[in-house]
């Protein structure tokens, strides 16, 4: 019997499991440049961290007055992103260790992401995490992206888990809000350190303020064990 019996763990993908935000920024920069927007900066990208790709390009259309349909923008961005993801996606070492620890204990695991199904599949295959994380939900498959709870609730449904027994790992404020709305516990690892004081992160049961540089697989595992004992 595992010390984590009864717990299911759901991972956000981008910025949580893998360091993919630089690729998303570059894909966004290339996409917007094709439509005449040549001043998209990293600081602009930071405002979209944690928001689904579909909602991001819809906002670009409004923000930059783009005439192209959202579907076209989405396809172009996904094409650029997949080209990058297939060659350079990288899992955070401590996150990989954490996934391996949990999988070794038989803990039910899932990925719930705002990325497209194709992007999620490419990243998990590239990083070799696909065999450990077979249950995957994309925001494209549910009615609403984060901060709505839909992707996390669907992940729990596919795992056959009660939302109250699920723990979410998230790097972005909309994701932390989504976990809270789903009635799930949350380990928050802010990707943008300056956002650690965002009110959404205050709802997390464990906040790793320093982000990935402070995250420890062993420490997170120990926290989960204490959570199970505390009920």
Automatic annotation (TrEMBL):
Protein name as it appears in the record: HAD family phosphatase
InterPro entries according to UniProt: HAD-like_sf, HAD-SF_hydro_IA, HAD_sf, PGP-like_dom2
Pfam families: Hydrolase (PF00702)
PANTHER family: 2-DEOXYGLUCOSE-6-PHOSPHATE PHOSPHATASE 2, PSEUDOURIDINE-5'-PHOSPHATASE
Matches recorded under Gene3D superfamilies: HAD superfamily/HAD-like, Putative phosphatase, domain 2
Any coiled-coil regions, as ranges: none
Bilayer-crossing regions: none
Organism domain of life: Bacteria
